[in-house]
Amino acid sequence: MSTVNQKTVNDTTARVTEHRLDPVTEPRAVRWILTAVALIFLALFLVVPLVAVFAQAFAKGVDYYFDSLKDPDAWSAIKLTLIVAAIAVPLNVVFGLTASWSIAKFEFRGKAFLTTLIDLPFSVSPVVSGLIYVLMFGAQGWFGPWLIDHDVQIIFAVPGIVLATIFVTFPFVARELIPLMQAQGNDEEEAAHVLGASGWQIFRRVTLPNVKWGLLYGVILCNARAMGEFGAVSVVSGHIRGQTDTMPLHVEILYNEYNFSAAFAVASLLALLALVTLALKLLAERRMSQSVEAVQARPIDLPVASIQN
């Protein structure tokens, strides 16, 4: 009986495979056309703009390029961008790890609502998110009078920029880790618990090593968005030159002043960041897929000493 069932399964699999589209058997002309279309789109919408940015940045020479970056206002924008990213990214890592571990490993009321809420910044315009903080912390906002009485400034200051950046970037780490943790399951954590490991030991010695590349992937995306955010930061910053201007805002100011070479010099740093982010993203994706395959392939054999150390 088992032999007949196995034969039926094999026949079905063979028929499905036979009718599945095999790109190798497609006419060579079709393959060349599809590849050419993809390459043309990449060239027009990615390569050409990047080349144009760097060409315009160095249009007045290398000395002018570095002088533009050494300008006090440009240097202030670069430092503020790095400071905001240095604050927002670690906070989003903490939130992402906490939220993803809770959603992937536990069952509780409101789990679906929490998952939906995490995606909210993806569906809300960054400008709207900036206006939300103005409504809450502006001079005429809900908490504005109290903040004024206590000499605390959030809007048109660095705290407002940090809050707006955190809002638009907090889904990135969580959305990368949730499916990864769900795919890995709970078997290793349960085995570690049986062996006497505490919750912190399980997280540090079992869960975190399994998701480290997914975590890196989320951090890379989060950092890139934090440094390149324009809409929300533009609303809450006030565009105070040399004080609350980040790199994207400084590019806009220079461009509006028709100082194109200086604007593209600062923009080239953001473009360079995009290229580095892309390279790290590809590395993290490759490592993450290898990590998932390794976890799914290996048996659960966790020595007590390795967990409890």
The string of secondary-structure elements, in order, is HHHHHHHHHHHHHHHHH
CATH class wording of the largest domain: Mainly Alpha
Q: Please report the total strand number as a whole number.
A: 0
Number of domains: 2
Low-pLDDT windows of residues: 1-9, 12-21, 302-306
Task: Report, as a whole number of angstroms, the end-to-end distance.
Answer: 51 Å
- CATH topology heading of the largest domain: MetI-like fold
Mean pLDDT: 83
Q: Considering DSSP H and I runs of 4 or more, what fraction of the residues is helical?
A: over 70%
Largest beta-sheet details? none
User: What spatial form do the alpha-carbon principal axes imply?
Assistant: globular
Enumerate how many helices there are, as a single number.
17
Which band does the percent of strand residues land in?
under 5%
**CATH structural architecture of the largest domain:** Orthogonal Bundle
**CATH superfamily descriptor of the largest domain:** MetI-like
Our Rg estimate from Cα atoms comes to 25 Å
Query: Which structural class fits the helix and strand makeup?
Result: mainly alpha
Tag the structure with descriptive keywords:
309 residues; mainly alpha; MetI-like fold; 2 domains; 17 helices; 79% helix; disordered N terminus
